[in-house]
Amino acid sequence: MVLAGLWEKRTFRRGREQGREETQRLWEAWLKRRQQAEDRGETFTEPPPRAETTENA
To answer: How far apart are CA 42 and CA 36, in angstroms?
Structure first.
């Protein structure tokens, strides 16, 4: 039981960390596209990443 609990906590932490990394990648890519559009003088209408999107990514 104790080992199962430790394993579960470790797995949960790892999953949460991976989710944060993916969210960071999504935001960085979005910000890069926004900046590129701005540099070209274009209107950028793409919505930013949302929590619902990143949770299921």
So the answer is: 9
